[in-house]
Design a protein that fits this description.
Blueprint lengths: L2 H7 L1 H16 L14 H9 L18 H11 L4 H21 L2 H12 L5 E4 L15 E5 L2 E12 L6 E7 L10 E7 L5 E3 L13 E12 L11 H37 L1 E2 L2 E2 L4 H27 L6 H29 L1 H4 L4 H9 L9 H14 L7
Parallel strand pairs: 1-4
Antiparallel strand pairs: 2-3, 3-7, 4-5, 6-7, 8-9
Helix pairs in contact: 1-2, 2-4, 4-7, 4-8, 5-6, 5-7, 7-8, 7-9, 7-11, 8-9, 9-11, 9-12
Bound molecules: flavin-adenine dinucleotide (FAD).
Flavin-adenine dinucleotide binds next to strand 1, strand 3 and helix 12.
Length: about 400
């Protein structure tokens, strides 16, 4: 049975397979991800073969047909290895596949989803601009309709997988005379369309191997059929379909990485001796280990509880719950990473230990897919506006 068949028929056995993959293949190859611009092809093929590009799709598009709860368990398991592996497929399965699945026309779904799900195509999501970060409504890129096509102009920055993507979802203004969200639309743009330039890859604090770059669109001409859903003015609705899945998956990634960091810290504390005993015998080290485990359990419980509630389209209350998960889990993993460095002492600060790399990698999670401050804002606004207070 292939891993994809296993995922569809016996999820628990599939999860065990993924855990073995992490232990025997992905972790031992993590050193190959540093100081390079992407995940090597042989490792990417392993991710494809294990169905990881297909995790959010239904079977009719070649997907694994997983529930949201199963996706959460899978994301946590796979991110016990470097989160750079996950970045190789995350933009495809979250932002890109979900936007097409939930809002694409039948033709768009048929054309792209099977190829994205098999990993033959990599998707990237282009929303952020120089003057539009947290305030996505401030985008300035335009898509001007001229006869039977749109002309896209503008630039997008910090775009994950920009240099390797085959397909971009581009969010641009189709009517600059309108003020609201209905001036914004979403497009499917093949990466080889003339008028696209990818800038050199950004130098980042962490996550080597998960490239980001600026994309410049200059009179990039796409057919009317590139408009997602076939309608203009709903670009934000399209974007939110992918963003909510991506936010929950980032929360899972934070849990997986926190588990990994805690495992590293615990192993070190058991083996490192000072004052004639293992440092794990010191109460202050035990306090830090206990805080890690407690916070991981809290975050894991949150993401699983939220995932179980997701059965169809998300209402506002569930979107706020997803923000709670993303906010808490990503803040939590940074506290765990800080403790892990502290438990390792000097070894935690030196670049030859995994903990130093993981510490830098996880810092991103509080920034992308909505900063912590933006999630606080979403959560509080929902609390203030909701009349029934179902969260209480
Ligand atoms: C490695 C990486 C990968 C990325 N990948 C992608 C991608 O694939 N596609 C994509 O479109 N984007 C991507 N991004 C962009 C990312 O989503 C943005 O960086 C993020 O939304 C924050 O925007 P900004 O960087 O412009 O910060 P700003 O919005 O300028 O925020 C700066 C600070 O101000 C705070 N702030 C802003 N507004 C408010 C407010 N209303 N209330 C309180 N505080 C506020 C923020 O919380 C933050 O602390 C990526 C970014 C990085 C770093």
């Amino acid at each position: 049975m292939t891993p994809v068949d296993l995922a569809r028929n016996d999820f628990n056995a599939y999860l065990r397979l993924i855990k073995t993959l992490v232990k025997e293949k992905l972790r031992p190859n993590e050193h190959r991800l540093t100081h390079i611009d992407g995940v090597p092809e042989d490792l990417t093929q392993i991710l494809r073969d294990h169905g990881l590009f297909a995790m959010t799709l239904p079977r009719k598009y070649g997907g694994l047909d997983l529930s949201t709860e199963q996706q959460v368990l899978l994301q946590i398991a796979i991110t016990r290895a470097s989160c750079v592996y996950r970045a190789r497929f995350s933009t495809t399965v979250g932002l890109v596949c979900q936007s097409i699945l939930q809002h694409g026309t039948d033709e768009q779904r048929q054309m792209y989803l099977p190829r994205l799900g098999s990993g033959e195509m990599t998707g990237a999501f282009a929303l952020t601009e120089e003057n539009a970060g947290s305030n996505a409504m401030a985008i300035e890129s335009t898509a001007t309709r001229i006869g039977d096509h749109y002309n896209i102009n503008g630039s997008k920055r910090y775009i994950t997988n920009a240099n390797i993507a085959d397909l971009f979802i581009v969010i641009a203004q189709t009517d600059i005379n309108k003020n609201g969200a209905n001036r914004i639309s979403a497009f499917l743009v093949d990466a080889d369309t003339p008028g696209i330039t990818i800038a050199p890859i950004d130098k980042k604090m962490g996550q080597d191997g998960a490239p980001t770059a600026e994309i410049i669109f200059s009179n990039c001409c796409v057919p009317l059929s590139a408009l997602i859903s076939g309608k203009d003015g709903n670009g934000f609705q399209v974007a939110m379909a992918g963003i909510n899945t991506a936010r929950l998956h980032v929360a899972c990634t934070a849990v997986g990485q926190a588990e990994r960091l805690t495992e590293e810290a615990l192993n070190y504390a058991r083996n490192r001796e000072q004052f004639g005993q293992a440092i794990s015998e010191f109460q202050s080290i035990q306090n830090m280990l206990a805080d890690c485990r407690t916070e991981i359990l809290a975050a894991k419980s949150m993401v699983l509880e939220t995932a179980r509630k997701i059965k169809g389209p998300l209402d506002k209350s569930l979107r706020a719950d997803i923000s709670c998960c993303k906010y808490f889990a990503t803040e939590m993993v940074c506290r765990v990473a800080d403790r892990a460095v502290q438990i390792l002492g000097g070894a935690g600060y030196l670049a030859n230990h995994d903990v130093e790399r993981l510490y830098r990698d996880v810092r991103l999670f509080r920034i992308f897919e909505g900063t912590s401050q933006i999630h606080q804002k979403i959560i509080a606004q929902h609390m203030i506006n909701e009349e029934e207070h179902r969260f209480l």
